[in-house]
Write a structure and sequence with these properties.
By secondary structure, the protein is α+β, with helices and mostly antiparallel strands. It has two domains: 10-153, Jelly Rolls, CATH 2.60.120; 167-280, Protein of unknown function DUF952 (ADP-ribosylation fold, Alpha-Beta Barrel). It contains six helices and 18 strands. The chain has helices at residues 131-147, 151-159, 175-184, 193-196, 208-215, 231-238, and strands spanning 10-15, 18-24, 35-41, 45-46, 50-52, 55-62, 64-71, 76-84, 88-91, 96-101, 106-113, 121-123, 169-174, 199-201, 223-228, 241-245, 262-266, 276-280. The radius of gyration is 20 Å and the shape is globular. It starts with 9 loop residues before the first strand and ends with a strand.
């Protein structure tokens, strides 16, 4: 085997003061194995809160990058680290954090395994000053990735169990309805299943309380959180299709846009598929 050129630099994000050029990945090289890009920040800038469903290494070439995390004890965001030129940051899959660039002329190289995809990077809209610009960026990324044919690459990564579908899913429901389904040995359906046409779920568990407070405060009883198998397992073992997309209404209640992606799971919800059940207090 000889060296070969596998990709071409492609501008995937461009906003005022912020740009991303992908050299390898689903857009840059039509490969889902990994992605490599160059990110340039020309003025102080902050991204929204992110939750990654891939491992990411960030090599800071110039400038500074701060990583903010949420402290559960103080209920405030705190600075986890501050990286400067020459530093490499590792962000583990499932980590929720907010990248902040306090100085102009910052440049870094992110490497993602598996490759970046919009549905693998949950972007929260809450608190953003320019939501229209954020929506434009999301739409641009989605359009670029929809144009890419990754059938062969997806087959490879699915076999290796490294796709974005390997995150657990979470569904909250009334405890009485769940226990009634268990006691009767029947399939569980949420009350809005007929109206919505699917079962809502979420892949970011630390957002469940916000979701519950948005949709279900009228309920007086106890609720439980159901931890489901990964979307990949549901598909391969049970033939159940999971669709990652923007939040949808639950019955007549408008969607809560705190995440870029909700999970709409199209299946009959049969209780043996649940991994864990936890009571929400």
């Amino acid at each position: 085997m000889i060296p070969k050129i596998v990709g071409k630099s492609t501008r995937v994000v461009e906003t005022e003061g912020f740009s991303i050029d992908e050299f390898a990945g689903n857009v840059g090289s039509n490969d889902d194995t990994m992605s490599l890009a160059v990110v340039k920040v020309s003025k102080p800038y902050s991204e929204p809160w992110l939750t990654l469903h891939y491992d990411e290494w960030i090599a800071v070439i110039r400038g500074q990058m701060d990583c903010m995390v949420f402290d559960e004890k103080t209920q405030k965001e705190v600075k986890a680290l501050s990286a400067v030129a020459g530093d490499t940051i590792y962000i583990e899959r499932g980590q929720r954090f907010k990248p902040v660039f306090p100085v102009a002329d910052t440049e870094y190289i992110p490497v993602c395994i598996p490759a970046f995809k919009p549905e693998r990077c949950i972007r929260e809209d809450e608190g953003l000053d320019d939501k229209e610009e954020e929506e434009r960026v999301k739409n641009q990324l989605q359009e670029l990735h929809e144009k890419t044919d990754n059938t062969a690459a997806e087959t490879t990564t699915t076999t290796a169990n490294t796709t974005g579908d390997d995150c657990f899913l979470y569904h909250i429901c009334e405890k009485s309805l769940w226990e009634a389904a268990i006691d009767s040995d029947v399939a569980y359906f949420p009350p809005t299943f007929t109206e919505d046409g699917f079962v809502h779920a979420c892949s970011v568990p630390n957002q469940l309380i916000k979701i519950a407070n948005h949709y279900y405060t009228s309920s007086k009883g106890d609720w439980v959180c159901l931890k489901l198998p990964t979307a990949e397992t549901l598909k391969n073992k049970c033939g159940i299709v999971t669709i990652f997309e923007e939040p949808k209404s639950v019955g007549s209640t408008d969607p809560l846009f705190i995440l870029s992606y909700d999970v709409n799971t199209l299946f009959i919800f049969w209780y043996p598929l649940v991994i864990e059940v936890a009571t929400l207090i």
